[in-house]
Amino acid sequence: MSVLDTLGAHRVVPVVVLRDPAHADALGDALVAGGLPVAEVTFRTPEAATVLRRLARRGDLVVGAGTVLTAGQVDLAYEAGARFVVSPGLSADVVRRCQALDLPVIPGASTATEIMAALDLGLDTVKFFPAEACGGLPTVKALSAAFPQVRFVPTGGITERNAPSYLDHPAVAAVGGSWMVAPDLLAAGKWDEVTARCAATVAAS
Ligand SMILES: O=C(O)C(=O)C[C@H](O)[C@H](O)COP(=O)(O)O
């Protein structure tokens, strides 16, 4: 199964901002216990590559890098063990670097023009970001009508409450979000709550 298929099988991608690499294992345990062994580690902090490496080396999670903005960050993510790369927008540099490394990449796209640029780069899966701010499910439906070959991973403003309606749309491969790994939960070490939210998410999707 390809990594993108694996993400599609899990249906929900937890978007992680973890500042302390020492907590990576506790987070990994919490995700696995909640039945959602997937993490998109955002490259928004200096520690991101270390957190990613610690989660990836466990072997029981599918770990990727998020907020990847440059080809240099693609290299960092790859070396740390990322199995997929996610960007908030579409950078041909980022996409081509991922393709050179055979690393699945999901660039952000929220307009028809951006989707066409992704198609030109040989991609068929995009992150619809920021999903709720860009019109939510009605926009996915409208874009999907024009691009039936494209799969979407809506992210940004997705919650336990609205995730199921996105996931019901056949063009939606998965959704991304931070609600089960909210930064305040991670900062406070509330791992049981992370597990509970993951389990609730799995049950609802
Ligand atoms: O910068 C990126 O590449 C991102 O991945 C942004 C994240 O998708 C959102 O921060 C998650 O959105 P929320 O679930 O609304 O917190």
Automatic annotation (TrEMBL):
Origin: domain of life: Bacteria
Alphabetized Gene3D superfamilies for the sequence: Aldolase class I
UniProt keyword Lyase present: yes
EC number: 4.1.2.14
GO MF annotation list: 2-dehydro-3-deoxy-phosphogluconate aldolase activity
Keyword set, alphabetical order: Carbohydrate metabolism, Lyase, Schiff base
Entries under CDD domains matching the protein: KDPG_aldolase
Stored PROSITE patterns: ALDOLASE_KDPG_KHG_1 (PS00159), ALDOLASE_KDPG_KHG_2 (PS00160)
Metabolic or biological pathway: Carbohydrate acid metabolism; 2-dehydro-3-deoxy-D-gluconate degradation; D-glyceraldehyde 3-phosphate and pyruvate from 2-dehydro-3-deoxy-D-gluconate: step 2/2
Catalysis performed (reactions): 2-dehydro-3-deoxy-6-phospho-D-gluconate = D-glyceraldehyde 3-phosphate + pyruvate
InterPro entries reported for this sequence: Aldlse_KDPG_KHG (IPR000887), Aldolase_TIM (IPR013785), KDPG/KHG_AS_1 (IPR031337), KDPG/KHG_AS_2 (IPR031338)
Quaternary data: Homotrimer.
Similarity field: Belongs to the KHG/KDPG aldolase family.
Record-given protein name: 2-dehydro-3-deoxy-phosphogluconate aldolase
